[in-house]
Amino acid sequence: MTTAAPARTALPVADNPGAGIDFELFLDCIHCGLCLTSCPTYEMLGTEMDGPRGRIYLMRAVTEGRLAPDASVREHLDLCLDCRACESACPSGVQYHRLLEPFRARLDHLVPATKPLPWVQRFVLKHIFPYVGRNRLALAPAKVLQWSGIDRLLEKIGFYHLLPKSLRQMHDMLPPLRAHYGKLPAVLPAEGKRRARVALFTGCVADAVYPGTNLATAKVLQKNGCEVVIPRRQGCCGALNYHMHDEEPARAFAGANCEAFGFGRTDIGSFDAIITNAAGCGAMLKDYGPLLRDTPSGEGGAKLAAKVRDISEFLVELGPVPPTHPLPIKATYHDACHLAHGQGVRTPPRKLLGMIPGLELLPLAESELCCGAAGSYNLTQPEMAERLGARKAERILATGADAVFAGNVGCLLQIARHLRAPRPDIWVAHPIDVLWASYSGEPPPAPETH
Length: 450
Description:
Layout: H1 24-27, H2 40-45, H3 52-63, H4 71-78, H5 85-89, H6 96-107, H7 119-127, H8 132-148, H9 150-156, H10 165-173, E1 187-188, E2 196-200, H11 205-209, H12 211-223, E3 226-229, H13 239-243, H14 247-260, E4 273-276, H15 279-285, H16 288-292, H17 298-307, E5 308-310, H18 311-318, E6 330-333, H19 337-340, H20 347-354, E7 360-362, H21 377-380, H22 382-399, E8 403-405, H23 409-419, E9 427-429, H24 431-440
Parallel strand pairs: 2-3, 2-4, 4-5, 6-7, 6-8, 8-9
Antiparallel strand pairs: 1-3
Helix pairs in contact: 3-6, 12-24, 14-17, 18-20, 22-23
């Protein structure tokens, strides 16, 4: 017997953040609670409303009109990292992110944030981070300070403690910045017999902060017999805007990428795969179908999404060329949330690392628990992000590893920041950086401080 949904209320559609969300998505939750111990905020706080089950209850109660969409509701929902660990744990297949993301986007227009983001951070997140050129320009002064040693001097005399907290947070997140590779050719030929033709998604923040990873990704693909195409008009995947509840700019970025990769109205896309090396970007790209539904790019978005593969996922499917140069190090691996939970990619990175001669991969306790980065979460919710970052660093240090690898730029930034004081010598890198080191024989970069 089917149970009818409770009667909806008189709450006007315009004032109901749950309006437009398929109500069946709420009913998928059977309130079993198996998701609770997978949730980082529930683990830290132990409060029902700060776990997935409680948040679903809140959203459903507001949608049904039994609860007002107020500051208290927003506070509990804003504290969610949207890491999607609950989706991995759920036996009923609840699509939690399809409830949370549109609900929060609409709630943002109805209820002011309890902890508004400082205008500087908001400006950076919306108007600098999603643009490759602006990122590189904005980081230029930081590079000069680091490379000249002035940064260390300013740190030593306590200058950064005089900055507003928002600017200090962004400074503390910066890793040692290395020279950018410049501009990759539009097409990179395969080494040996061509096994595949792929397009490389280069991203925005990751390309500016860790440019070596994009270069290593292209070289690894070539080494594995792939012709690599770099579409010139590609841009941000849209995740930064989407997770800040700006749906229209996110759709605009997504639509532009459909055109750039040849999945516009004419559907000229001819790649075996679209490769990404950033978990957050990959999860967003794979979600272009629902994001662009009911738009002119809807069909192209779904076709593009079907082609997207994380670099580790693609290489394992293709059959990787074995690396030959030994890397005699003890390492551990952290599962980036949007790779493990958002894309279901867990084994491929470990398989690639396991192929490297001399590398010993040590198990990491709570490997799938979020490190606290979660896109822009470490800026929007710094207190909780700090606690989760410290917890992750503690688990990594307990392994005794000399290196830690993760498949997402946000995780790398967060983990490196929290390991900087206790273990400045630890190598924090993307698995593809490690794989390329073993292919090429180039030694890992020496640890740096700034």
